[in-house]
Amino acid sequence: MTKIQSWFFSNDDKKEHVRALDGLRGIAVLMVLLSHTSNNFIYFQPSLAFNGIGKGGVYLFFVLSAYLLDRQISMALMSGTADSFFWKRYFMRRFLRIFPILIIALMIYWGLTQLHIPTVINNGRDVIMHLFLLDGQGVFWSVPVEFKYYILSPFILILCHAWLKWNLKHILIFFLCLSTFALAADFYFHFNKINTIKFLPVFLAGTYLAIYDVKIKSTPFIEKWSSIIGITGCVALFNCLLVNPNYVGNWLGVDNSNNGRKILILYVLLCVIMLFAALRQKGIFRRFLEMKFLRFTGIISFSVYLFHMPVIYFMNVGLINIPAGLQIYFFFGVTFLLSTITFLLIERPVSRIRISREKFTPKTVR
């Protein structure tokens, strides 16, 4: 591995790291980018419009985040290593993962507004409201939703540990009950878009896969049907990328503009299939997700997610005249350049901050 590669693929040497999940995260953020460019009439080809698939990309982010974090928590609870140091490190890393880059993003959005390039952050009050997770305009809506699940999921997993004793069947029933409650509560109370309960079924899907993956490494059935699992993953990916949710909403008889619950459930199923295939299938689907470009995109995905809209805002103002056929390439080029810089200058250094157990453990006074 070269030095430059080590800047982005430093986790490749870790035994537990699944490279395909980097690629799956890359797919998720590309879905968001393609949706937002289509919404702003920026296309590779006008016939290739991806309006509406961005929500599916964010749901895939939610499932992946729940899986990756709750797998660590599940393993710690099962092995008895979930002590006070573990929880302090967990919450510190979650804070550092979100807030440093979020602060920079909010300041950039606000700065653009002051330069008469309209964004969703109009004043200092908007910055404070978003920083304290009390608002979520534009792409920022997913940040409070996800961060609040970071706080909620440990309590759910502690219940699975202490009450359900990691029984997969009982946990599945418990999660289905929680999901039904969340959907019913949203139906009656019409939660706002930054309420985590509204998206609880999405997160619980990732959490259940995390527990399943820790408990059951492999089975003869999975080994036998590996190729079918891979094909199913490809079909799920195709549906996420190319099936316009507005058409699906009409077919299901729901209003997609109001985030129809049937569409949410459909996306949960597709995301679960893709994640399961990425974890358990070793054929073409997994090799596709392990492509360097997809993995690179996934690794810098949070920066890409936060900073792609300022590029669109700048393009919409029309300060420079970009031919229609080149706009999509300008967008991707500038977005990836900015995101790579913010990843290297902010995300990567912050992610390397560690606390040692020796410093955390108080010394005994003699």
Automatic annotation (TrEMBL):
Cellular component aspect of the GO annotation: membrane
TM regions (residue ranges): 21-42, 48-69, 95-112, 147-164, 171-191, 197-214, 226-244, 264-281, 293-314, 326-346
Domain of life the protein comes from: Bacteria
Presence of the UniProt keyword Transmembrane in the record: yes
Gene Ontology molecular function terms on file: acyltransferase activity, transferring groups other than amino-acyl groups
Family annotation (InterPro entries): Acyl_transf_3_dom (IPR002656), Acyltransferase_3 (IPR050879)
Coiled coil: none
Entry keyword Transmembrane: yes
UniProt record, GO biological process: polysaccharide biosynthetic process
Keywords: Acyltransferase, Membrane, Transferase, Transmembrane, Transmembrane helix
Domain Acyltransferase as annotated: residue spans: 19-342
PANTHER family attached to this UniProt entry: ACETYLTRANSFERASE (PTHR23028), ACYL_TRANSF_3 DOMAIN-CONTAINING PROTEIN (PTHR23028:SF53)
Protein's recorded name: Acyltransferase
